[in-house]
From TrEMBL:
This is Transketolase. PANTHER family: PYRUVATE DEHYDROGENASE E1 COMPONENT (PTHR43825), TRANSKETOLASE-LIKE PYRIMIDINE-BINDING DOMAIN-CONTAINING PROTEIN (PTHR43825:SF1). It comes from Companilactobacillus paralimentarius DSM 13238 = JCM 10415. Residues 7-172 form the Transketolase-like pyrimidine-binding domain. CDD domains: TPP_PYR_DXS_TK_like.
Length: 314
């Protein structure tokens, strides 16, 4: 784990896209009135001929991106996750997925990032939708190093993908991009323990590591797994831990239905014997509050995760 300061993933993505865009003029960024919230102002200044502003028209954003891809461009469509995966999901399914079109869909301000703006702006169902769409890879980077590794892959990949990021500056879980992102479908074990397994992705990975530290003080040693990619999924590693542990906890900034927990459950049900505990947002509109307050309320912060584990272990 690096001692470098926490960084916002969006800023790191902009740096990667500027670097790649200078080397490849086919890389273009499209935004739906979101260059500011997407941290893309530096890209617009550096490469003004490689950014397209479509305005608040997410369906057009996706379809135009698909058209550009068919013309040989390598588009990155950037929009708030709540709108990109709801308002324009038909275009994602038909224009991008159906024809296996090389469009990278970047859902910014994902999960509960918009906090007090409420359920209209939360994207707590996006993973459920996107992981069910054929041909679409699904990612949620957990720190700056994983973001760098992931985007070095994405700018070269010809496959469509959905990438969800939040707004927080994230503490580092890794020390370099090479260890943080190996390849699609390759999860990473960040910590080894013998008593319980914690499986997380994106912004819940640092919380899972905090929980492991708290649990160790209680004599409970936890393995922490960062899924890295939800689709493709590392079924080999999940099958292994589902036979090594009696209890697995999944932690997600998403509905408890059809997200990370459900993906892990599909593996455990067919190849393992562990009891699975899914920690996430309940089947109800999320409360209003800061992201930290909401995480604490639903038991998704380090202390809440540790408390849930202690209950089952005891």
């Amino acid at each position: 784990m690096s001692e470098e300061k926490a960084r916002k993933v969006g800023e790191v993505i902009c740096e990667q896209l500027v670097d790649a865009g200078k080397k490849d003029s086919d890389i273009v960024v499209l935004t739906s009135d979101s260059r500011g919230s997407g941290s893309l102002v530096p890209f617009a200044k550096e490469l003004p001929k490689q950014i397209v502003e479509v305005g608040i028209a997410e369906q057009d954003l996706v379809t135009i991106s698909a058209g550009l891809a068919h013309s040989g461009k390598r588009p990155f469509a950037v929009s708030p996750a709540a709108f990109l995966t709801m308002r324009s999901i038909e275009q994602v399914k038909v224009d991008v997925s159906y024809s296996n079109t090389n469009v990278k869909l970047l859902g910014i301000s994902g999960g509960n990032s918009y906090s007090v703006l409420g359920s209209t702006h939360h994207s707590l169902q996006d993973l459920a939708i996107t992981r069910a769409i054929p041909n679409l890879e699904v990612y949620m980077p957990c720190d700056q190093y994983q973001t760098v590794g992931l985007f070095k892959y994405l700018v070269k990949s010809d496959k469509p993908a959905y990438i969800r990021i939040g707004k927080k500056a994230l503490n580092n879980c890794y020390s370099n991009p090479e260890e943080a992102f190996v390849k699609p479908g390759k999860a990473n074990v960040l910590r080894n323990g013998k008593d319980v397994a914690l499986v997380a992705m994106g912004e819940t990975v640092p919380e899972a590591l905090k929980a492991a530290d708290l649990l160790e003080k209680q004599g409970i040693k936890a393995t922490v797994v960062d899924l890295v990619s939800l689709k493709p999924l590392d079924t080999e590693l999940l099958s292994k831990i589902s036979n090594e542990f009696s209890d697995i906890y999944t932690i997600e900034e998403h509905s408890i239905y059809n997200g990370i927990g459900s993906a892990v459950a599909e593996v455990v049900a067919t190849s393992g014997s562990a009891k699975l505990h899914i920690l996430g947002f309940p089947d109800a509109p999320a409360i209003a509050g800061t992201q930290d307050e909401v995480f604490s309320y639903y038991g998704l912060d380090g202390a809440g995760i540790a408390k849930n584990v202690e209950k089952s272990i005891s």
